[in-house]
Every structure is written in C-alpha cells, then in structure tokens.
C-alpha cells in the first residue's frame, strides 16, 4: 500500500484497486476461518519448526521484515533537492504517543551534518559576562532533565491552505514527531556565562552548511528550552542534530536548531532569513504575520484515513488519531463521522503531558454507508481547533504556515478514504 503513496499524489483508481484486493483477502480469510477452520492456526507454521536468529546476529535491533512498509517518505515535487527537503512521519502506522527514532520526520536545509562528538564545541558569546566554549564532556557535567515534547514544522499541513491536495495524513500532517528528550535546561548554561542586563534575545546557530539561525526571546530560553543530546533514551540521530540540538517546547520546529554550535546573546532580534523571507505570512492587506512561534491546538484522525482504509466491511471500527497544543495539554477531542452534524467526545488514552501529543480513540459500528470523518481538539487554555474557513477569513489563502484547521476524510461505501474539504 505504501508504494502507491510514494512521494507523488496517489491515484484514487490505483489505490482503490489495491485496497479492494487486500480487503477481499482479509474478509475472505475471516469467513473461511469461521466456516472450516483456518490453516494459519491449525497447521504448524515454519517459524515454529526451526531455530531463529541468535542474540549476536542483531546487535542493534531493527523492525520485523514484515514492517518494512512503515517508513518515512518524501514528496519529491515539494522541494527542489533531497538535501533541502522533508521526510514525513508515517502517522497512520503508529499508535500511542511516542514516535520511534527511526520514523521521526526530517527537515534539512543542507543535508545531514556528520559531527564528530570529540570535536564538537558549543560557544556562548555576545552580551554575557564570560564567553564560554563547552565540549561534550563539559555538557555532561550539567544537571539534566527528561521531557516528552512534540516537534512540529510550522509548514505542517501548509499545502492544504488552498484546498485538499495530499492524500494521506503522512503527507498532510507528517511533519511532526513526539519523543522524550534528555537535555540540560538552557537557563543553566546561560547562567554559567552570566547574561548581561541588556541581553533580551538569543541567536542559536547550527553547525551544518546552512548555518541555520533563529531569534528566540530570553523569556522562552529561561523558561523551558533544553540543550538536548538524547531522544527516547539514546543519542540523537544524525538527522535530528547529533550530537546536540536545541529544544524549544511548543514552538515551531524551525527554531529547534540542530547541530547546535553557538548561542549569541543580544539586545534585539536579528531578523535573519528564516524569520523574514521564511516563516512569516503575507496577509491580503500587505502586512506580514511574524514571530508566530507557538503551535496552536491541532488534531488529525490517523485511521481510518487515505493510507489506512477500512478493509473489513460493515462492523466495528476503531477510529484513532493524535492531538497536540503548543500551549499546554489536550483535555478533550471531539470527533464526527457525518461531517459535523453530530459530534462525540473521543476517549483519550495514555499520559496527558504538557506540549506533547495525545492519543484519542472512538469506537463505532459502521453500517457500510459513506462517512465524513473529522476531529476537533480543545486545549487546556480553552482554545478550540478552528475550521479552515475560519482561518482563511483572518489570513486569506496566501499562506503556508500554522495551518491547524480541521481535517476531513471522506470514506466511501468500500472503505476507501480521501482528503476532501467541506463547507
């Protein structure tokens, strides 16, 4: 199934053909099991007759070969070159709230930098009492903390501003991941250098060839930012900024500078490329929205969805998805199966953590008729996820960033789902 969605817009006809074939096989197998007994359970299978691999054959564990389809994918026509591109998280294949390290989405501006930790250095300079340079060994001597946070690109769902385009939540919403970060509170490193009274802003800089920079206000830096070196318990992956990256909880992913090499303290924002020509929105009146750092409450149904159709025919369906907010937790998610005529409160399962993904479920009996599936997140500040039309009424259609509008999947009588818009 994943090959159908490999990068380009999928063909509904091709997908329908594949979904119908896999669905028929599944339904047929179930009926055979009920009628005459299922050979898969009655007969001894090969894996029960021969010895498997020993403990020394996989020193670093990898997924089963039967899960090879669960992988990141890019959309070639979205960007000009793979070294400045995006690899999307397969949200439809995941459950719970933690994203496996090997499936976390990637966004690069100059490819993946391979940084030797023995030669790694982090500089603190600018408006500080003591300019400092830290080695990895120096950083390991600071107190560290563990927090689960989502990282979402500001352009996540950006292609959907002008209408339904990408057919699959991996491509509409997959510029996000949610992991446990281990790192040093940034305020401790700044305190070590001693921030001067005039120091109100930070400029973190990456060590890759693009030299990524963003301006960050001092209040945020002193609040909850981390200088992180591990994710989900192991060292950062190279594509996630190994050996050290910045974590800016709840704020757009472009600010989470990877391969962090320098932090300059200044008295005003720098207005560099990534916060002027990029990561701003030009409004219809000619003014631009800028410094829109926080990620608003958002949700998406991951199954059923275009890459995860209903294959079993009428009967029980487990709807599931994820919700998150850069301003706190998600105490409630509403879902609808009829395009908003009736809303139902979904069941949130798993930990409810600040600025982290939340997993929701809604179980219902499907009668085989077409469905219009939507989810609507409420965050702990009282904010409610808006419709796309509500967003467009304020910002217009000339936008890319911070689209947190409600997503709609249309499911037909055969269980195939499509990305659509309804008014």
Report strand order across the widest sheet. Answer: 4-3-12-7-8
Q: Which descriptor suits the 3D outline?
A: globular
SSE order, as H and E?
Answer: HHEEEEHEHEHEEHEEEEEEEEEEEEEHEE
Alpha-carbon Rg, integer: 23 Å
For the sheet with most strands, the description reads: 5 strands, mixed
- Beta strand count: 23
Residue share in helix: 10-25%
CATH homologous superfamily identity of the largest domain: Oxidoreductase, molybdopterin-binding domain
Helices, by number, come to 7
Identify low-pLDDT runs: 1-30
By CATH, the topology of the largest domain is: Sulfite Oxidase, Chain A, domain 2
**How many separate domains?**
2
* Percent of residues in beta strands: 25-35%
Can you give the mean pLDDT? 91
- Provide the structure class: alpha+beta
* CATH class type of the largest domain: Alpha Beta
- State the end-to-end distance: 30 Å
For the record, the CATH architecture of the largest domain stands as Alpha-Beta Complex
Q: How does this structure look, described?
A:
The chain has 423 residues and is an alpha+beta fold. It has two domains: 184 residues, Oxidoreductase, molybdopterin-binding domain (Sulfite Oxidase, Chain A, domain 2, Alpha-Beta Complex), CATH 3.90.420; 123 residues, Immunoglobulin-like. The chain is built from seven helices and 23 strands. The strands form six sheets. A five-stranded mixed β-sheet has the order 4-3-12-7-8. Strands 5, 6, 9, 10 and 11 form a five-stranded antiparallel β-sheet that branches. It starts with 11 loop residues before the first helix and ends with a strand.
């Amino acid at each position: 199934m994943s090959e159908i969605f490999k990068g380009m817009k999928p063909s509904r006809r091709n997908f329908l053909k594949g979904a119908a074939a896999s669905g028929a096989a599944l339904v047929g197998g179930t009926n055979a099991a009920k009628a005459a007994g299922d050979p898969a359970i009655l007969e001894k299978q090969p894996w029960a007759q021969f010895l498997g691999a020993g403990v020394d054959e996989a020193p670093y564990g990898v997924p089963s070969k039967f899960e090879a389809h669960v992988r990141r994918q890019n959309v070639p026509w979205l960007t000009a070159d793979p070294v400045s591109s995006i690899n999307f998280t397969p949200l439809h294949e995941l459950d719970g709230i933690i994203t496996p390290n090997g499936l976390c989405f990637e966004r690069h501006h100059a490819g993946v930098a391979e940084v030797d930790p023995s030669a790694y250095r982090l500089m603190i300079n600018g408006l500080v009492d003591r300019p400092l340079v830290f080695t990895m060994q120096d950083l390991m001597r600071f107190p560290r903390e563990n927090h689960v946070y989502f990282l979402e690109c500001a352009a996540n769902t950006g292609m959907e501003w002008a209408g339904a385009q990408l057919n699959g939540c991996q491509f509409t919403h997959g510029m996000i991941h949610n992991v446990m970060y281990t790192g040093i509170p940034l305020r401790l490193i700044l305190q070590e250098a001693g921030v001067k009274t005039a120091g109100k802003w930070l400029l973190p800089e990456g060590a890759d060839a693009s030299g990524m920079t963003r301006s960050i206000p001092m209040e945020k830096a002193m609040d909850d930012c981390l200088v992180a070196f591990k994710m989900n318990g192991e060292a950062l992956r190279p594509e996630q900024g190994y050996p050290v990256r910045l974590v800016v909880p709840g704020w757009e992913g472009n600010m989470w500078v990877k391969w962090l090499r320098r932090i300059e303290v200044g008295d005003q924002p720098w207005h560099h490329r990534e916060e002027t020509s990029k990561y701003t929105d030009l409004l219809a009146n000619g003014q631009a929205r800028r410094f829109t750092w926080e990620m608003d409450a958002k949700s998406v149904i991951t199954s059923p969805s275009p890459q995860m159709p209903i294959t079993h025919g009428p009967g029980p369906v487990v709807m599931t998805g994820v919700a998150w907010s850069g301003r706190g937790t998600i105490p409630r998610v509403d879902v609808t199966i009829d395009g908003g005529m009736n809303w139902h409160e979904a069941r949130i399962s798993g930990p409810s953590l600040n600025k982290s993904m939340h997993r929701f479920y809604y179980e219902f009996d499907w009668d085989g008729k077409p469905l219009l599936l939507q989810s609507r997140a409420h965050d702990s500040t009282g904010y409610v996820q808006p419709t796309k039309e509500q967003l467009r009424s304020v910002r217009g259609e000339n936008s890319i960033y911070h689209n947190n509008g409600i997503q709609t999947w249309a499911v037909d009588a055969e269980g195939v789902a499509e990305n659509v818009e309804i008014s």
